[in-house]
Structures are given as structure tokens and as C-alpha cells.
Amino acid sequence: MESAIEWRRADTAAAAPAGPCTSAGDVLAALLDSVEGGELHIRPLRALLESGRFARFNEVGLALRRAFRDPAQRDYFIARMKPHLQLVIGVLPSGIQRHGMLPPEPSAPAPDALRLEQVSDAELRQWLVDDGSLIYGEFQRYELANYFDAIAPHLRPGGEMIDLGSGLGKVVMSAALALPFERCTGVELLGYRHAMALERRARLLALSQQLLAALPEQAQQPEAPLALPVGGAATLRHLLELDARIELREQNMFEADVSRASLVFIYSTCFAPLMDALAAKLARELPEGCLVSCTTFALSHPAFRLLQHFPANTLAWTGVFLYQRVAVPEGAALPPPAALYAPDPDEWEVRARAECAAYDAA
């Protein structure tokens, strides 16, 4: 379905008032403008990579990186990678490249250093999944505004929005401000990201209290009208109850309770190997009528009816899909598991060897 929306192409000047806030709308604009992006956040590498979940990440990753860098091991490196190409974002895993999160090591590794030959296929697969999960991506501010415009016609006041893989909380906090949800919940697996999101939430709430307290007395009435950015009417309670309306959880998305959701948001560009399992979970647990949006990769399950597809470079830099949870006829056949990103192995090898040659020449 083609959309008549005129998409924003870049961030625009702040809509927040230059002077003191004199109305609920002024406060809302200032709060939206204050929500922080997270693409350039500093990752606590040592604490992260020494944590329980990633305790072996360094060891396996260094073995893979040594094989990539050693011309004598290139054929073996390429052979080991080929069965797992659907797990890699791009040509080579991010972690083994110069900008990756693996630590430097001496040119001559320790005699007892793990070799790629000692890494099982299951371990390598898990390492590639973990490497992808460490990549951080989010909508730019203007893309998020486009997204809100796109979904607004499908929303009803109330309900719960859930962001699976909520990172530093940008989408959750922005949605709580701009959209008419009763509650917005973020679910994030990585502890350091969850901690940073809590800090940002605290700053947002502190600013909200400060701005609301400074409003003229006549503008502080809970039932004072408030126009939301995407259309629709609310009252000042939308902001007065912000603390109760934003919840952030440190949790595996597969363990999250989504049974009361009215919108599930998934920035799934790095979730290719998880999409089938996510679709199955959501099909089991979501109420009928719930909206689901995801990026880059479609949901292949009969429980989800596609409402709109926004191709790459329209709403955002990547494609965005909007679905609705529908009833599945009894006995309906489920599609086989899909390899959502699986480049041709021979074409991949050509590109991988070019990357290797570029590394050697640098």
C-alpha cells in the first residue's frame, strides 16, 4: 500500500520553545526535544566482555580473527564461515574487523591460545549471534517521527506499547510522549544498555517535573487539554503520569510478557537469525488485533496480516513492516523456517576474499 505521507528526510530544528514553557504543549515539545539518541554511546567493553553471557566471546572471537588475518588460514576461515552466512550483517563479522569490540593482542599469540579448529560449529554460530547483538542501531529522530506518523492512524488511545530490544530507551520514551498509550515498556537484554536507559529515563522525568512545576497556575490543571504531535487529544495527565507510563526491564525478549500489548516494536535489522522464533512467540502470546512492526526482515507467519510495507529510503533508511495479529484457521500449515539473510556462498566468498586482500594491503 502506498502512503500519502510526505516523509521527513533529515532532523529539523527543535520544536521546543526558546523561552519558558507556558502551556502543556510547550512542555511536551521540550521533553520530546530532550530525548537522547544512543548511536554514539560509549560501550563499557571490559565489563561487558567479562560478563557471564560474553565470558567466552573474546576467546572464540580472537581465534576467528586470527584465522581471518593469517593468509595461511584463509581457506579454512572461509570454509568455517560459509554455513553461517545468514548470521552475519555485511560481509565479515563486525567483531573481527578493525573497529570491532575484540581487544588487541600480541602479534604472536600465546602457545595455548584457542585455535579456530578447536571451536565447534555450535560455538561459532553462538558467537556470530552474540556479535550481531552487540551492534547498536536505532531510528534517527526524523525517522522515528516518520514512524509515528505512519502508525498513528492505526492506534487507539490506551493499551501498551512494547519495544523488544529497547537499547537506551529512545523509542520507548519518545512513544510515551508522542502517542496515546497508557504504558510504554522497553525490554533490553544487555545490562549496560538497560542501566543507561534508566539514567536517561530519570533525566527525562526530572526535567518533566521541573517544567511542569514552572507552568503558570492556570496551565497546571490535570484536565488541561494537550494536543499530541501525531494528532489526537490528551490532557496534562499524559505528562503528569509519565513516571507510571514508562517502564524499562532488563530481560530476554523471549521471556517478556506481551499478552497485553497493543503495539510491539522491533528494530530487527540485526535479528535475522531470531525472526522465526520471534514470530512464533508473538503468534502464541499476542492478543488478536495487536500491531507489530519490524525493520528490514518480514514476519513469515500466518498469524500476521501485513497492513503496510514502507520500502527502504521512504519512512527510514531500511524497510519497515507493519502487521496486525489475526486469527489462524485451525490446522493452518506454518511456513518452514526461513533464512532471511543468506547470500550466495560463492558471491560471498569473492567479496570476503576482497576484504581479506584489503586487510593485507593496509
UniProtKB/TrEMBL annotation:
Gene Ontology molecular function: histone H3K79 trimethyltransferase activity
Species annotation: Pseudoduganella aquatica
GO biological process: regulation of cell cycle
Residues of the DOT1 domain: 133-197
EC identifiers of the protein: 2.1.1.360
Protein known as: Histone-lysine N-methyltransferase, H3 lysine-79 specific
InterPro entries for this protein: DOT1_dom, H3-K79_meTrfase, SAM-dependent_MTases_sf
Keyword NADP: no
Source organism superkingdom: Bacteria
Catalytic activity: L-lysyl(79)-[histone H3] + 3 S-adenosyl-L-methionine = N(6),N(6),N(6)-trimethyl-L-lysyl(79)-[histone H3] + 3 S-adenosyl-L-homocysteine + 3 H(+)
Sorted UniProt keywords: Chromatin regulator
EC top class named in words: transferase
